[in-house]
Structure formats: structure tokens, C-alpha cells
């Protein structure tokens, strides 16, 4: 899978005063009517259970100049707290209460409509309830275990 290029995104949620964000590349469009997307997060991390509990998530597509956010939310620095990670970006809420990155290339605020564990990952399928678009900039891609731009 390291040879499979993927757009780098941060999937986020909030529940009972706690925010969670995870860097992912496994995400895509599911439907355009109604608008739906899916995102996959690691099921072995117990902190990711918040995505099911909250009932919503945002999918934030990163630009090339947002590598610092991709690294922060990847868990490469386990000493960083969620508050420190979220402090690196400018966040807003649209419809569901999930944190949406204001200057993401595109951000999809979703109501969780289906949740399924498939082997090592949780598949989150969400109906898009809100959308925001940032400026046109080069996209951040992950391939061959490194970042690239497109």
C-alpha cells in the first residue's frame, strides 16, 4: 500500500468536550446524491472510538503547505496533546459540531450514517451536512512513505 498515492487528510470529531483528529489517506467520495464520503481510521487505537460515539466527523483535505498539521495529527509525536495539535490550525464548526479546518483545500462536515469495523480499520460513512473550501493550492499527497505535492 505504500505505493498507493493518497490525498492526506485529517479526520476530526468532538464529543463531550473532547476533540480528536487523525491524519489519514484512506478516504473517498461514496455518493453525490445525497453527498456522502467515507474515511478509515485505525481500529486498534481505543481513542478512535470517539468517532462512533460522537455520531459525526469532518474530513479535511490538506494542502502542501500544511505538512506540519499532517505530522502533528499523525501521532508521530505522542507527547503532543490534542489541545496542542488543534492549536496549530484555525478551526470552525459548520453543521455537526466536528472541528473543520478553515483553510483546508476542502472540508466535509458529516453526520455519521454507518460505522463498520473491517479487519484493522473502522470505516466511517458520513452524509455531508456542510462544506467549506479554502484557496486553490497544491494538494498534499502521501506515497512511498513520504509527502509529495500535486
From TrEMBL:
It comes from the Bacteria. Keywords: Oxidoreductase. It holds the Pfam family Flavin_Reduct. The keyword Endoplasmic reticulum does not apply. Its EC number is 1.-.-.-. One of its GO terms (molecular function) is FMN binding. SMART domains: Flavin_Reduct (SM00903). PANTHER family: FLAVIN REDUCTASE (PTHR30466), FMN REDUCTASE (NADH) RUTF (PTHR30466:SF1). This is Flavin reductase family protein. It comes from Shinella sumterensis.
Amino acid at each position: 500500500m505504500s505505493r498507493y498515492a493518497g490525498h492526506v487528510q485529517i479526520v476530526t470529531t468532538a464529543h463531550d468536550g473532547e476533540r480528536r483528529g487523525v491524519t489519514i489517506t484512506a478516504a473517498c467520495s461514496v455518493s453525490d446524491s445525497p453527498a456522502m464520503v467515507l474515511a478509515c481510521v485505525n481500529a486498534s487505537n481505543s481513542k478512535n472510538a470517539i468517532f462512533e460515539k460522537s455520531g459525526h466527523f469532518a474530513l479535511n483535505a490538506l494542502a502542501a503547505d500544511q505538512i506540519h498539521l499532517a505530522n502533528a495529527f499523525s501521532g508521530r509525536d505522542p507527547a503532543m496533546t490534542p489541545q496542542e495539535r488543534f492549536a496549530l490550525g484555525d478551526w470552525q464548526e459548520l453543521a455537526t459540531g466536528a472541528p473543520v479546518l478553515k483553510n483546508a483545500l476542502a472540508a466535509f462536515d458529516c453526520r455519521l450514517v454507518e460505522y463498520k469495523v473491517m479487519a484493522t480499520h473502522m470505516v466511517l460513512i458520513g452524509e455531508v451536512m456542510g462544506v467549506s473550501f479554502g484557496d486553490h493550492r497544491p494538494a498534499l499527497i502521501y506515497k512511498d512513505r513520504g509527502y509529495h505535492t500535486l
